[in-house]
Amino acid sequence: MITDDGCELWTSATGGGEPILCCHGGPGLWDMFGTLDLGPRFRLIRWDQRGAGRSEARGPYTLERMVADVDAVREWHGLDRVAVLGHSWGAHLGLLYALARPERVSALVYVSGVGLGHDWRAEFERNFERVVGEKPRGEGRESAIWQWTADFVADGARHAEAMATPWFPVNYEANTALSEEMRAVPESELVSASESLRVPTLIVDGMADNRPRWAVDSLEQALPSVKRVRIEDVGHVPWLEAPDEFRSAVTGFLGNRGGS
């Protein structure tokens, strides 16, 4: 598909039923929802964000542009309103899209996000250092697998290998630009905006995530319509470590909310 500024994005739709637009993590990574199974009731709309994976490597890499790209993917698939599921950075992107275009979002599933502030980073780095071994030589795929292994409680190397297949270059330019812009937005500003968001929201936490889960508390407290599911003994990618429990949480929430 082509965005309004001429950027070519890779996108895919699999399954039938109610559509769910998936926003992958990063920034600068690519779609890793290939193993996500929510059952036959749902159609997963996946895409690589600009500059990532199979999409064209071109900017600008700004929050405003990324939100516009989410809207472009929704429109390209012919959807008036859609449930949005975001993971990690993609959870924040999904939230920003819901805040910008609430009339286009029927529900938001916020998975393993890091909340609205920035105080979580020091604890995350301490947690990460406690569980990782010696960093391998070189960069690229081997280094990413080493890093991602720490995101799991068990079978980390196997899960990280799956996340790195297929492999694409990491877009560090996008990662740096978007991370800096996110850090420049005050938490109070996002809390105030979230207090007016009427989109039903599900927050899903893996309680063994290296990223502290208390960082999401201010978002939960701000949202008027929110449910939070905490999955014990699970890390940053809950659909890989606890697929049945994750599926039950998401499909139960979307089913109780009703269709879009």
What does this structure look like?
With 260 residues, the protein is α/β, with parallel strands linked by helices. The chain has one domain (11-120, 170-257): 3-Layer(aba) Sandwich (Rossmann fold), CATH 3.40.50. 38% of the residues lie in helices and 16% in strands. It is built from 10 helices and 7 strands. It has helices spanning 63-76, 89-100, 120-131, 141-149, 156-163, 172-183, 187-194, 217-222, 238-241, 243-257, and strands spanning 11-14, 18-23, 42-47, 82-87, 105-111, 201-206, 226-231. Strands 1-3-2-4-5-6-7 form a 7-stranded mixed sheet, with helices on both faces. The longest helix has 15 residues, at 243-257. The protein is globular. It starts with 10 loop residues before the first strand and ends with a helix. Keywords: Hydrolase. It comes from Amycolatopsis coloradensis. This is Alpha/beta hydrolase.
Outline the secondary-structure elements:
Blueprint: E1 11-14, E2 18-23, E3 42-47, H1 63-76, E4 82-87, H2 89-100, E5 105-111, H3 120-131, H4 141-149, H5 156-163, H6 172-183, H7 187-194, E6 201-206, H8 217-222, E7 226-231, H9 238-241, H10 243-257
Parallel strand pairs: 2-3, 2-4, 4-5, 5-6, 6-7
Antiparallel strand pairs: 1-3
Helix pairs in contact: 1-2, 4-5
Protein name: Alpha/beta hydrolase
Keywords: Hydrolase
Organism: Amycolatopsis coloradensis
Q: Can you tag this structure with a few keywords?
A:
38% helix, hydrolase, Alpha/beta hydrolase, seven-stranded mixed sheet, 260 residues, single chain
